[in-house]
Every structure is written in structure tokens, then in C-alpha cells.
């Protein structure tokens, strides 16, 4: 079948971005169309324009600024996009006007219907790595502390690895659970069960709901969350679907959290990889101001090995009956977490009616009111008290958190 081409050429300026950060360019798809291919062109040194797609049956995918093209066909699609026969009707290329210079930006979008097009398939699955021994941590009867990382990306958004490559890295890092949280898409969800089973790690379905005014991770197989809607709707949608929403890196650079909310999510990524100077108490101050009842999680926000920011740094330990997605979400929902710098690093656990500080000799246990006790011994126990506690060095650098 010969290809049909549609071309949109637009000039976008600050006024367009002020009107809406998203611009839709519609096009018609006829019955029997075999594929949709979109190519985006603009001066990348002058501005940032994100790329996505919606169709009559719903959202088809998002690649943000990570890609300049995508293809959708019946059985395959570019990572970040949902495969499926292109349904007839009005589709739209969705442009995110992320950074638009004062003089504006010329943007060209070419849409190819039918014919042949590149697909950018996922890489082949690597061998199964040797897994490090699991760390034995004291826990309540019937539960185990599982090593988790609740923030990571793949080729389905702006990560460098395919789902199988990420799963292999997670297993080799000693993780039991890894939330795969690609930006504004759920296209990676279909690959998670098989890859997780192959590498012996639970790949928890997630998505990072991503906007200019803050990011939030939605955990669970809950369907796609429309990032263009008000953030309070994200909270309600995720809760109604049985998932959990976590505010991400609330103090991080140009993606800090400043979305208004009339209902607050239960989780927050208090410890993000970017908390490099942990004597800086900004994340703790934000947590205190936001609400100490918020359950803390940690996330490496892993994108690529080239960044030098490994998986599981920080690590979130969850006390659960198993490392399954349902058990991990239940542990998060009930605040059974502990966050540490890494899997082998000092950790502070709530076990029965006690705090247990492991591998923390010489550190300080700090309660919610700032009162301190010196930890002595490699498995020191203290009476549990209400409110968040932490371990810190004598020079006040945070080492571990417990809600």
C-alpha cells in the first residue's frame, strides 16, 4: 500500500506556551491504515519540544524530548507507544512546549500513513547475572524486609536500557523489587512480567506522571494517568484504581514540586539520588512541612549506567509477606518502609515495638523532635516511638530514615 503524508508546520512562541503547555496537531487515519509514523523536527539547540500521540481510542504514547520520531503498527510500536491496529478517525500529535525561546521556534511534524518506517526495537535480553546474597534483616513474624528501588526508567521514555536489560541490572544489584516508572506512558507494562520472571526480580508497574510543575510516580497496574489534568485528579484516579501515588524529588532543580493539591498522596520520594549532601536538611524540612504522616520512599531515578548513578542508591526496604507487587504496595500503604543509602549500608528498622539500628555503631539515632542517642553495637535496639526517626553521622549527615 502506498504511503500518504501529512505535514504540519507551526511557529510556537511564549504566547502559545502561556495559553497551554500542550499543542495538538490533528490528522485523519482511514480504515485499513497499517501504520502511523511521525517525525518531529525543530532546532534542538534553541528549544525543547516533547512528543506524544493520542487516538480515538485513547492515549497511544509519549516520548517527551527523548525521541524525535515514533511508529505505531498493529503488532509493534516504538518503545513508549502502544502497539495496535491504527483505528480510523481523528488522531493528534501532542507537542509539549517545554522550553520555547523569546523569539519563538519553528516546528515541523511529518506524518506518514502506511508504507514502511523504522521501529527502534528493544535490545535483546542479556544473560541472567549472578545475584548477590540477600541481606538478612530482623522483621515482624511472617514478614521479610525486601530491597526495593521505586524509581527507574527504560527506553520506553528517556532511559538507555530495555526492560530486560534493566531487570538484569536490578537482579545483579541485589534488588527484590524495582518499580519501572517511565514518563507519561504505560507501554513498558506489558514486558514487565516476563522480564521479571526471567531475572528473578519483581518489576512493579509504574509511570512517572511528568509536568513542568512537578513529577509523581503512580504505582500499580492502574491504567494510564493523564498528566495534562490537574494533579488532584491524579491522586483520586490512582487511589480509585487501587494504586499509590508518590510525589517525586520535591526539591530537585527545575522539576521540584509546586502543583496545587486539595488532597495529598500517601507517599513522597524524600530520598532521591540528588540528595548528595545529606547534611543539607532541605528534604527533611520539606517532609516536616508537608506532613510527617507521609510515608517516605527512596528512588535512584536510574536512567543509564553512564550517569554514574546506580540502581538501589538509595534503597527502600519494605516489610512484606513476599516481594510481589501487591505485597509491596500493601507495605507502602501501611508505612512499613525504611530508606538507606544502599543495600549494604546502615539501616533503621521498626520491628515489633522496637527500633533496630543495624551496622550503625557510632551513629546517632534522632527522633522527630531532634533528640539524639548514640548507637552502640552492630544491632542496637531502642524502644519504638511515634514519628519519623533517622540515623546520622556525628557531623549530622543523614544515613537512614524510618517513618
UniProtKB/TrEMBL annotation:
Top-level taxon of the source organism: Bacteria
SMART domains for the chain: POLIIIAc
UniProt-recorded name of the protein: Polymerase/histidinol phosphatase N-terminal domain-containing protein
Any one GO molecular-function label of the UniProt entry: 5'-3' DNA exonuclease activity
Origin species: Haloactinopolyspora alba
Polymerase/histidinol phosphatase N-terminal domain residues: 148-213
Amino acid at each position: 500500500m502506498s504511503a500518504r503524508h501529512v505535514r504540519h508546520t507551526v511557529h510556537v512562541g511564549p504566547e502559545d506556551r502561556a495559553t497551554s503547555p500542550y499543542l495538538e496537531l490533528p490528522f485523519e487515519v482511514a480504515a485499513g491504515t497499517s501504520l502511523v509514523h511521525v517525525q518531529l523536527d525543530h532546532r534542538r539547540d534553541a528549544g525543547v519540544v516533547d512528543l506524544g500521540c493520542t487516538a480515538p481510542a485513547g492515549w497511544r504514547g509519549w516520548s517527551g524530548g527523548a525521541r524525535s520520531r515514533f511508529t505505531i503498527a498493529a503488532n509493534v510500536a516504538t518503545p513508549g507507544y502502544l502497539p495496535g491496529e491504527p483505528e480510523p478517525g481523528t488522531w493528534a500529535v501532542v507537542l509539549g512546549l517545554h522550553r520555547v525561546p523569546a523569539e519563538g521556534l519553528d516546528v515541523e511534524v511529518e506524518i506518514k500513513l502506511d508504507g514502511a518506517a523504522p521501529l527502534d526495537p528493544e535490545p535483546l535480553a542479556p544473560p541472567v547475572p549472578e545475584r548477590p546474597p540477600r541481606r538478612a534483616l530482623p522483621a515482624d513474624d511472617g514478614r521479610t524486609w525486601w530491597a526495593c528501588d521505586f524509581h527507574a526508567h527504560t527506553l520506553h521514555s528517556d532511559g538507555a536500557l530495555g526492560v530486560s536489560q534493566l531487570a538484569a541490572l536490578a537482579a545483579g544489584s541485589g534488588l527484590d523489587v524495582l518499580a519501572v516508572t517511565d514518563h507519561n506512558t504505560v507501554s513498558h507494562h506489558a514486558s514487565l512480567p516476563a522480564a521479571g520472571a526471567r531475572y528473578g526480580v519483581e518489576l512493579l508497574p509504574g509511570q512517572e506522571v511528568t509536568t513542568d510543575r512537578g513529577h509523581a510516580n503512580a504505582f500499580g497496574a492502574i491504567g494510564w494517568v493523564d498528566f495534562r489534568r490537574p494533579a488532584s485528579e491524579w491522586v483520586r484516579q490512582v487511589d480509585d484504581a487501587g494504586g499509590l501515588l508518590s510525589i517525586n524529588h520535591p526539591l530537585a532543580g527545575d522539576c521540584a514540586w509546586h502543583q496545587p493539591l486539595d488532597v495529598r498522596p500517601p507517599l513522597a520520594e524524600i530520598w532521591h539520588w540528588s540528595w548528595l549532601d545529606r547534611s543539607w536538611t532541605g528534604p527533611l524540612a520539606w517532609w516536616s512541612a508537608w506532613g510527617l504522616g507521609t510515608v517516605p520512599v527512596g528512588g535512584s531515578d536510574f536512567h543509564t549506567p553512564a550517569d554514574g548513578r546506580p540502581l538501589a542508591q538509595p534503597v527502600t526496604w519494605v516489610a512484606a509477606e513476599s516481594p510481589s507487587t501487591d505485597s509491596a504496595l500493601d507495605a507502602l500503604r501501611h508505612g512499613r518502609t525504611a530508606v538507606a543509602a544502599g543495600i549494604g549500608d546502615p539501616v533503621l528498622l521498626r520491628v515489633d515495638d522496637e527500633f533496630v539500628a543495624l551496622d550503625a555503631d557510632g551513629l546517632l539515632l534522632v527522633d522527630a523532635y531532634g533528640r539524639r542517642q548514640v548507637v552502640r553495637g552492630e544491632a542496637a535496639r531502642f524502644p519504638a516511638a511515634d514519628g519519623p526517626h533517622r540515623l546520622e553521622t556525628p557531623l549530622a549527615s543523614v544515613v537512614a530514615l524510618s517513618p
